[in-house]
Prior knowledge:
The structure holds 2 protein chains of 2 kinds.
Chain A: E1 4-7, E2 10-13, E3 19-25, E4 32-38, E5 44-51, E6 57-58, E7 67-73, E8 76-81, E9 90-96, E10 105-106, E11 110-114
Parallel strand pairs in A: 2-11
Antiparallel strand pairs in A: 1-3, 3-8, 4-5, 4-9, 5-6, 7-8, 9-10, 9-11
Chain B: E1 4-7, E2 10-14, E3 19-25, E4 32-38, E5 44-51, E6 56-59, E7 62-67, E8 72-77, E9 86-93, E10 99-101, E11 105-110
Parallel strand pairs in B: 2-11
Antiparallel strand pairs in B: 1-3, 3-8, 4-5, 4-9, 6-7, 7-8, 9-10, 9-11
Amino acid sequence: xxxxxxxxxxxxxxxxxxxxxxxxxxxxxxxxxxxxxxxxxxxxxxxxxxxxxxxxxxxxxxxxxxxxxxxxxxxxxxxxxxxxxxxxxxxxxxxxxxxxxxxxxxxxxxxxxxx
Amino acid sequence: xxxxxxxxxxxxxxxxxxxxxxxxxxxxxxxxxxxxxxxxxxxxxxxxxxxxxxxxxxxxxxxxxxxxxxxxxxxxxxxxxxxxxxxxxxxxxxxxxxxxxxxxxxxxxxx
Lengths: 115, 111
């Protein structure tokens, strides 16, 4: 099946720094990728939809200036958490549907801890 | 706004039991419904996908049903095993391919 990777798998950073998370589709192209956030013992919440070649669309309540999304190619989307705070500590997961498909393939997730 | 609810939140059963996980959603205008498995600290594994026009899907010991009109789905696990212990997530996909997740059911199968 299709494979989606995320890097890094785990990151610890100091409050106020920025952290970049990469999401790659390894064997298919994806014009759209989705970014989710999952707090401990809670479900996944969609943060934003990343669109190749255009601006991302953000869900209500998600600050676009804090969570910068860049979808520069058909296989790569990046999420940058700017000026991270402890409350941003969470599990961030991306997903990508192969072009024209409805099935989404999920990355393994990135665990962010902001001290 | 679509809301997805899963009951129970947690379940503990002895090995070998058959069990049912429940999922309900408020807006029946869905594209499909999917069941996922998530192990602690890991990503998601897709288990079953039911199209809006379908009633059920089966894979091995798993069977998922969908009643779109009543906004319900069930995941049936037959002859449960300790390796089935995980969190099971139900998600509905809307027409823009967005997935809305339930809060999950944490399953523990005791040896």
